[in-house]
Amino acid sequence: MPTSESVSSIPEPAGWKSWWCSGRLSQYLLLLACVAGVVGLLASRALVALAPVVGVVAALANPHIRRQVPQWLRLRTVWAPAGLYVLLLLSGLYTHEWPEWRHELFRQLPWLAVPLVFGLAVPLTGRQRFGVGSLFVVGIALIGAATVGQYLRDPATANEAFRLGQSMPSVTRIFHIHFGLMLALATFLGFRMARQRHAPHCLRIALGLSVVVCVVVLHVLAYRSGLLAAYTLLLIEALLALLVRRRFWLGATLLLALAVGPWLAYQTLGSVRERVNNTFFDLEQFELQHDINHFSLSRRLAAWQTATVVARQHPLLGVGPADAHAAMMDQYAWRSYGLLPANRVMVHNQYLHQLVAGGVVGLALWLLVLLGPLGQPTLRRNPYVYRFVLLSAVAMLTDSLLELQTSYNLFVFLYGFLIVAAERRLRQPPKPSPA
């Protein structure tokens, strides 16, 4: 048995080996992947593509990876995304769109990679996680402010576009539906972060200002999907405050904001008035069976009816993710609603899309991914987790967010960063107390 002198004489690993043995290499690589992911979501698709690769390297760099694998396999939030990917693999047995199927196999690899990264890499510290969240919130606010500046250069032209159903993308070319959801997420997550007392005072001020900016941007640019998600979550927060937490003044204040906010925006913002008027006129065109080629919501209603027909024809496993577009276009050929081929849109509803692509099995797996975390009481009480889940759930009523790369990356990254990481922290064995 070695003596204390002989043990102390053993040299410590030097350089990168010490980083690897201590786990800092894995942790800093994970931090780099998270920062690259956030910056990529805001401004660069290339960084979004590279971030999971860096994350997988971070997981492999964990010096205790063998010990972590059994714990990773016990995470419930890992298995549901893997189930979606397995269903995609099985759809290769009946797909007719082989090139698209092979593309989907590659595109949807983050369902496996991101839960693996956040389940196996050395976890970020609380300060590092707060920094990544702050980068997301403040970054969204800065891009939103720049986009409003672009709007204010010629508000009359922009309002006319809103009247015709068109929306402004962000200055970094983020699609308006995705950007509206990002603004709603930044609003609620940033509000919670700004109340953390351990955060530096200047950062709390920056987060608070970012929340205000995000709220203003949502209303000035009248992003319907983002506003729908934000006000739905505000209603849920008000009901929770009144019925569960018994905080009546807070609940009453939130309900007042829910009533006054939309009315005030309609009275003061021309963009909101044009958007509301356009929405009702749009829906009226579908109801009266007029020409709907240039009306966004009417085309979505036509797509939803088309999707229900396709889903009824393939109820169990659907047509396959790779064949969903072809199946929709074939059904449009039977009933076109007067739409020109260029205006025959896809499903624009994530739940219906899952039903078309994966049938009842695919929809069940998707609901397990989205709502499964709320089945764990501790995760359900985590304000970041339930707000992310509910905002995403509402936004996906109006668009197939997982079928577009930016919103797919947004969901999968935040799923790993917020949900998988939170469950992993819950399941970590407690540290032994000092003797």
UniProtKB/TrEMBL annotation:
Kindly state which keywords UniProt assigns to this record, in alphabetical order. Ligase, Membrane, Transmembrane, Transmembrane helix
| Protein name per its UniProtKB record | O-antigen ligase family protein
Where does it mainly reside?
membrane
Q: Where in the cell is it found?
A: Membrane
Q: What Pfam families does the database record attribute to this sequence?
A: Wzy_C (PF04932)
Residues forming the O-antigen ligase-related domain are 210-367
Q: Which domain of life is it from?
A: Bacteria
Question: How does this protein sit in the membrane?
Answer: Multi-pass membrane protein
Q: Where are the transmembrane segments?
A: 28-61, 73-96, 108-125, 132-152, 172-191, 203-222, 228-244, 249-266, 351-372, 384-402, 408-426
The question of whether DNA-binding is a record keyword is answered with no
Q: Which GO terms describe its molecular function?
A: ligase activity
In the UniProt record, the signal sequence range is none
Q: Is Membrane found in the keyword set?
A: yes
